Amino acid sequence: MMNLVRANKLPATALLFIVLLIIVGLSASWISPYDPFQTNHHEKLLPPSLSHPFGTDYLGRDLLSRVLHGISDSVFPVFAVLSVVMLIGLLVGALSAFWGSKLDMLMMSVTDIFTALPNVLLTIVVVGFLGFGMENVYFAVILSWWAKYVRLIRGLILDVKKEPYIIASRVSGSFGMRTIIRHMIPNIAPQIGTMLILDVSKVILTLSGLSFLGIGAQPPSPEWGVMLLDGKNYLQVAPWMGFFPGFMIFLTACSFQIVGERLRRGK
């Protein structure tokens, strides 16, 4: 019993952190001690203190306030991006597995092209072609991620199609989109949910990495990748500028990964 408690302590802590992160992100406007965009040249590069727990940056902006507001720019868009990816995967994967034949061959050929390309490389190429801007970045991430979900959902639905109750539904003549929505999708939802949670950390790292490279979010956004980029030039004189946003990226990515792995193992 004690081993079970110890085994679940880390996932429970990670889940608690995620819940608190979402709550803080939603209430950042009320709980932030300062305006995240307000500059104060008299308080530039102040180290962490009681008045500024995370210190200030090169423009005198409070880093704690920027980190808190950065949740809405660094984490929340990931949920929207992955939701779109999941919907595309459900639509294309279900139709491909359901009707099969030529449509299946065509869709699998297209997905093979996208899955053969590294996600980050494809994202950078698409952003470079479309131009900078978060709308283009989100579109590029969706474009580089959808094929993975199509393949997963197609495989899951092909497995579910072999179940006796699905075969019985097919024999009775009611095998159609209603069967997919009412019976197939609920049965594969746990696997899709687990994959989504595991991918949150990857997409967070991707978006932050693109911002750090200067092709994602742009200053004065409090997005954590942008804050890392700002702190890069002040590592020797103000290391806290890069430490706190970097640590938040690390904690957030690790928390989603831990929860996802716990769900994947199902123990």
Low-pLDDT regions? 1-5
Provide mean pLDDT, rounded.
88
Number of strands: 0
C-alpha geometry: elongated
How would you describe this structure to a colleague?
By secondary structure, this protein is mainly alpha-helical. The chain contains 11 helices and no strands. Helix 1 packs across helix 11, helix 4 runs antiparallel to helix 5 and helix 5 packs across helix 7. The two termini are 13 Å apart. The N terminus is likely disordered.
Secondary-structure topology with pairs:
Blueprint: H1 2-26, H2 28-31, H3 63-74, H4 76-99, H5 101-115, H6 119-130, H7 134-160, H8 164-171, H9 177-212, H10 224-232, H11 240-265
Membrane topology: Multi-pass membrane protein
Protein name: ABC transporter permease
Transmembrane segments: 12-31, 75-99, 120-145, 237-259
Short structural summary:
The chain crosses the membrane at residues 12-31, 75-99, 120-145, 237-259. The protein has 267 residues and is an all-alpha fold. The chain has helices spanning 2-26, 28-31, 63-74, 76-99, 101-115, 119-130, 134-160, 164-171, 177-212, 224-232, 240-265.
